[in-house]
Amino acid sequence: MTIGIGLLGLGTVGAGVAGILATPSGRHPLVGELALRRVAVRDLARPRPVELAAELLTTDPEAVVDDPAVDIVVEVMGGLEPARSLILRAIAAGKPVVTANKAVIARYGEEIAAAAAAQGVYVLIEAAVGGGIPIIEPLKQSLGANRIQRVSGIINGTTNYILSRMAAEGAAYADVLADAQRLGYAEADPAADVQGGDAADKIAILASLAYGGNVPRAAIPTEGIDRLDARDVAYAAQLGYVVKLLAVAQAMPGSPAVPSAQAEQLLDVRVHPTLLPKAHPLAGVNGVNNAILVEGDPVGQVMFYGPGAGAGPTASAVVADILNIAGIRQATGNGTNAPLDPLLAAGSWRPCRLVDSAVTSHRNYVRLRTSDRAGVIGAIGTCFGEAGVSIQSIVQFETQSAGDAEIVVITHEVCEANFRQALAAIEALADVQAVAACLRTL
Ligand SMILES: NC(=O)c1ccc[n+]([C@@H]2O[C@H](COP(=O)([O-])OP(=O)(O)OC[C@H]3O[C@@H](n4cnc5c(N)ncnc54)[C@H](OP(=O)(O)O)[C@@H]3O)[C@@H](O)[C@H]2O)c1
After folding, report:
1. Which of 1, 136, 185, 384 could form a disulfide with 389 if both were Cys (CB 3.0 to 4.6 A apart)?
2. Which atom from ligand 1 is nearest to the alpha carbon of 12?
3. What is the Cα–Cα distance from 96 to 73, expressed in whole angstroms?
4. What residue ranges line ligand 1, CB within 6 angstroms?
5. pTM of the model
6. Is residue 138 a part of any domain in this protein?
7. Considering only CA atoms, which of 304, 281, 75 is closest in space to residue 206?
8. Which domain does 50 fall in, by range?
9. Is residue 59 predicted with pLDDT exceeding 80?
10. Atom of ligand 1 nearest to the CA of 13
11. d(Cα 145, Cα 431) in Å, to the nearest integer?
């Protein structure tokens, strides 16, 4: 039984998907059952890396969704609109959807899941996080028995590429970014990557799946790498750490031990540059690779690692989702009354609330610019002590200008409110010129 595929988009990912569908030999036998029926693009004249019959292409994406020969709609056009409306249109027509669109799912996942549940159709999103790395299905299914304590990951390849080169070469952020743009590893407009928004979209999705509730995307505290100083990467290395843009979601104490649909789940979800000890499992993830570390009870630590983007890896995840749906359609006749994915059904989701960051606890790295005078380190230590912040290490680094010093402090795990109180007192010291950098530390 041939299954008709409608593609919304024939860019990097869409062309990768079309390439797999056109070359079924040696792949899962079901790939040979998939037939590309219609493809929406913006510009019919643009040269494509895959050869397709001209009559397949259209500039009308609604015509792809509505085409009776299209059984599964694959949304790989990106952006919020018209992608969201087209996904909802497909669902309303009873057509299952596969999408790689993290931006839409992070913002409208609850609306889309509710519409899919009402219609009894699948919406699968494996490619939305981690490119070719299987992480969505493992979180939804394979790890479903666990209490998830924490999901943390390097889930943006562009920033990981930049940070890896900053660490290896001691290069400045702006220089590496310019080079990454020249080499095609960073977009002409890199804002979504370097300011952390892309990673925030992805951790919102992972947190929603790990904790079974809708995580408010707009409330996720997000800090990118665009203000990161090469000196902090170098000092971190000297102290035994690497700097990574980490996305973290963890359950907070007070969250119900036995979750129910009604009980509110309190979460700490955030994105920021983070110092990782060199022995940490995520510390060795370099270049454009991604990795996600899931910590659960009783499974322990499970790490997923691989290529987080690119035509081939992302298309691999998209086609896997198509095959899942195709397999169910074949097993159930034509797909009507297919069993709904129970873990994505919005009806079983519970409310999630993000905790006020002032009550969270972390280790911190602080770089202070001070005058090079006896007693400064003592005064700084006193400020930390009076605020109840205990220090793991305090190191003075030489600077170019005589009479100045740079002091780096790494704290033990402390409540954010106490840490801020200590920083305010330190900033008021006459010998402290500036709190030059402040980073979280694992
Ligand atoms: N690239 C990756 O490595 C990667 C990895 C994971 C997830 N994703 C996600 O996958 C999605 C697609 O990414 P991509 O990199 O493949 O994007 P892309 O290269 O920019 O391709 C977008 C495609 O959609 C078409 N399109 C856009 N708006 C359209 C409209 N209104 N009507 C008709 N066609 C339209 C474009 O047509 P034209 O070609 O005619 O302009 C193009 O073919 C995004 O949601 C992205 O976040 C991408």
Report:
1. 384
2. 16
3. 6
4. 9-14, 40-43, 46, 59, 61, 76-78, 82, 100-102, 127, 131, 309-310, 314
5. 0.95
6. no
7. 304
8. 3-132+311-348
9. yes
10. 16
11. 54
